[in-house]
Structure formats: structure tokens, C-alpha cells
């Protein structure tokens, strides 16, 4: 199993210190590669006042330039908002510059305001997303494309081709994971749902892979939020207030939580209703190194993921030095437990 980091390059509330924040991201990227992580990832959203990155391409180029070994990618690039030929070309160049290290995780978007920004009807997002996926896959395969769909008319070929890029498809629903399986793509999960939801969706995903004949191409890339410290009390004091605010935002704004598999969420009506003692169970990877290892092994047993992609620092904190300490500690005291072949993978 590989280990990655999803960075959150935001500066609440108004993005006044984004230059400094990005320098901190690049410094953390260097530390993460030295600490033994396998991949570094960035997100995307639009019109966020805290400076949430609206495009991944410059960041991916910067990460490619300052690293040598780690994979670089997105979780998630909002594919419907960009012309698929531009995506194929931008991605190919990042992949070439990085020596074949691009892992482009794509999703279809959540927020109506983002569709409005681009003049796209949200009712068309699925069909547009699927056309984009097909076009990028065909372009990266080197095909001479003659495509005439509902959203795009394309004739030509993309050059140069990538040398090692992978296309991943994010999903937060049964139709979404079935789509990822149908297109034969690895699935980066969300970091929000608990292990029961993840197990169910992974079963649907792998079952669809058998149905579509794409099983050899599939893989679960698990996203989780977490923090390693001396104790669970340290985590709750230092880190939990930041992740609680982040999870509340998604709970409030993105109505995709699976209530029947998340029973305690039925009583949540405000941010303060997220209680650390409950919310961390089978969802977060937190605590001292042994507790983090135990949580990862539970996810490993349930999901057999190819990748575990962690977010440590949220938009509001902890601070940069605390983030670097956490990255180093996770790399030296947690990751080595999974480099051995002694722990059996689930069949």
C-alpha cells in the first residue's frame, strides 16, 4: 500500500497570505518526499474566498519541479469545467515534466455556483463528465479522435502523449463508483464517510469491475483525515477543532452522506454536534503512532486499498511547523509498519 498527502492550500478567511501558504506547501512537499511518502496531491474548487486553488496545473508543475520520486496528482480535478482536450494536453505535459508521475483524479463537481460560473447546466453534469472522461482516455491513448457528442465535437490528435499518467475517477455514490469501474479507472474515495460506507461502495465498485471486465485496472485509493501525536487528547486539543469545521462545511453543503450507514449523523444539526469521541471512530486516522497503525489496518482489512492519501493540515490549521512535525512522525513511526510483507492483505 502506498501513502500520499492531500494538501489544503487555503488561507481563511480572505486569502491574504496565499503566497506564504504556497511556500509552506512546497516546503511540506519536500519534507514528505524525504519522510517516505509516495504521492502528493492538490484539490480544486472555484470562487472560494480563502484562496482554495481553482486550477491544479501550476501547482502540479511546481511539485514536479521540486521532487524526484513521488507521484503527483489531484483529488479532485473538476473535469466538467475544463475542455477535455486542454485537460489531456495539460496533463500530458505535467506527466512528461515529472517523468511519468501524474495521477489525475477527476470528479464531476458539487456546487451549483461553480456550474453557473462556467455557464454549464448542472443537469448535464453527468453526461458532460462522461464525454470528458472518454475524450481524455482516447487522447492519452494516442488515438486520432473523431468525436461528436452532446457536448463536444472533436477531430484530431493530442501530442505529445503522456508517458505514465493515470486517470482516476472520484465518486461519492453507488452510480459514481460504478462509473469509475465502467471506465476502468482507480477510485479515489472521499475522506468523509465511515468504514461501513466505504466497505459497501468498494464492494459495489469491485462487483461492477467484474461485470464490465475491468477488474485488473481497478484500485481503491482511500482518502482520510488524520493526525499523529503523543496521545488522543493531544489530537483533540491541537487538530480536532480544524477538522470539525471542515467536515461540518461538507455535511451542510454536500447532501451525499449515507444516513442509514451513519446513524449518529441523524442528530447533527450544527457544527458543535460533531463530537470527537464519536466522529473519529472508523473514520479518522488519529492518535499516537500505534493507534494510527491500528486504524489503518482496520481500513486495510475492510477495503484492501492501493493507496492511503492523508490530509493533516486543514484550511485553518494546525500551523506549518506542527504540520511538518506530523509529516515526519507519520513517515518514521507509522508508514514503516506497512512496508513489511508480514501483514497479509485481504483476498
Automatic annotation (TrEMBL):
Pfam family, one: Bac_luciferase
Residues covered by the Luciferase-like domain: 1-302
GO cellular component: cytosol
GO molecular function: monooxygenase activity; oxidoreductase activity, acting on paired donors, with incorporation or reduction of molecular oxygen
Organism name: Actinoallomurus iriomotensis
Family annotation (InterPro entries): Bact_Lucif_Oxidored, Luciferase-like_dom, Luciferase-like_sf
PANTHER family registered for this protein in UniProt: BLR5498 PROTEIN, LUCIFERASE-LIKE MONOOXYGENASE
Protein name: Luciferase
Keywords from the UniProt entry: Monooxygenase, Oxidoreductase
